[in-house]
């Protein structure tokens, strides 16, 4: 198979020799003059954090302390900290989706918190499975508190997410819970696919997109609909918002895949060439392998040898840089940037099939633009 890279605007690549910030991915449109995306993200964080903290306080010791460390509220010694709590895109989308129905953003808060709990359940387990020692510029939970606590706290967050929704006791809460559990199952499917792909020499672009749709798209889709469901939205509205979120999730993951190879460690909080060190079959890699040509063939031989290598862990920066250069030369970087733009455009188009206040629509568009124009 030869992958058509023309849609991504492939051109003579600039070969990277060290970890770099990913170039801006131009959004399809912008409403920057009308919408302050920083304020939207901060609103989501401000509305959800007190409820999230109260939920974590329900956990039995020491899980409450371990979870508080994971969320950045305390340091490894248990002292109060002001850690990086992440971008808060999902909470922002969840509270915004409530406004599609005319409800107040606060209506979406239980859904926002539930989604955030499931997201962090996945991070705790992913860090352990991937062997990641750093997240958000500090040691991961399993590194500080041990693998057992990472597993237990992750499980507890998942259970807590469903508990919070079901406590509302309404028909809408039941509908929201069903959507959340379906998204969680897809997320787990995606993680299982991701792990299995690490042990294969080749993965198709279609398989990679399916995996990323499960692992990232499903939960972001849920975030985009759960507030609306709690606000009484019908299934057509909720399904359409999920379609927006699913394709936004694919755009989000495409950018993440770029950052996973070429991201600036100062911005991402991860090592240089992070995904290459973990042998991840991310979009730039699979696109480069499918492209054909000398760089693609050379890359394929190197990665196949890497999979059998007993000294892979001792590879130098130059060896990872050489693999990143081949990915770029084969067109994988450009194709992935183009795919981020394509998925972004599909997400925005989905918004046209449902009625919502103009300002709410503008905020959805601006949040989508933010997802594909970022450095971490």
UniProtKB/TrEMBL annotation:
GO terms for biological process: isoprenoid biosynthetic process. Pfam families: polyprenyl_synt. The keyword Amino-acid biosynthesis does not apply. InterPro entries: Isoprenoid_synthase_dom_sf (IPR008949), Polyprenyl_synt (IPR000092), Polyprenyl_synt_CS (IPR033749). Residues 1-29 are annotated as: Disordered. The keyword Aminoacyl-tRNA synthetase does not apply. One of its GO terms (molecular function) is metal ion binding. Keywords: Magnesium, Metal-binding, Transferase. It comes from the Bacteria. Belongs to the FPP/GGPP synthase family. This is Dimethylallyltransferase. It comes from Streptomyces fructofermentans.
């Amino acid at each position: 198979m030869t992958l058509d890279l023309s849609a991504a605007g492939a051109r003579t690549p600039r070969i990277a020799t060290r970890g770099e910030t990913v170039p801006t991915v131009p959004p399809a449109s912008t409403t920057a003059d009308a919408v302050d995306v920083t304020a939207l993200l901060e609103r989501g964080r401000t509305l959800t954090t007190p409820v999230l903290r109260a939920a974590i306080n329900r956990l039995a010791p020491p899980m409450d302390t371990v979870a508080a460390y994971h969320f950045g509220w305390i340091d490894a010694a248990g002292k109060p900290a002001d850690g990086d709590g992440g971008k808060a895109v999902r909470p922002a989308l969840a509270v915004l989706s409530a406004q599609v129905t005319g409800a107040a953003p606060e209506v979406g808060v239980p859904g926002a918190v539930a989604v955030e709990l499931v997201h962090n359940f996945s991070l705790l387990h992913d860090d352990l499975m991937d062997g990641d020692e750093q997240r958000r510029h500090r040691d991961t939970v399993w590194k500080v508190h041990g693998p057992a606590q990472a597993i237990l706290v992750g499980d507890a967050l998942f259970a807590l997410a469903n508990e919070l929704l079901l406590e509302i006791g309404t028909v809408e809460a039941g509908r929201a819970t069903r959507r959340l559990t379906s998204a969680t199952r897809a997320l787990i499917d995606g993680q299982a696919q991701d792990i299995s792909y690490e042990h294969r020499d080749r993965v198709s672009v279609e398989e990679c997109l399916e995996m990323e749709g499960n692992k990232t798209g499903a939960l972001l889709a849920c975030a985009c609909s759960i507030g609306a469901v709690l606000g009484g939205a019908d299934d057509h509205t909720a399904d359409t918002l999920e379609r927006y979120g699913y394709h936004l999730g694919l755009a989000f993951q495409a950018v993440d895949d770029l950052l996973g190879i070429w991201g600036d460690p100062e911005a991402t909080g991860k090592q240089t060439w992070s995904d290459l060190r973990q042998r991840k079959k991310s979009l730039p890699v699979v696109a480069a392998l499918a492209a054909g040509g000398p760089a693609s063939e050379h890359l394929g031989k190197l990665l196949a040898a890497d999979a059998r290598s007993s000294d892979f862990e001792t590879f130098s920066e130059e060896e990872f840089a050489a693999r990143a250069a081949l990915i770029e030369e084969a067109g994988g970087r450009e194709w992935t940037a183009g795919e981020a733009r394509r998925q972004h455009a599909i997400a925005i188009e989905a918004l046209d099939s449902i009625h919502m206040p103009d300002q709410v629509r503008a905020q959805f568009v601006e949040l989508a633009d933010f997802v594909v124009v970022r450095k971490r």
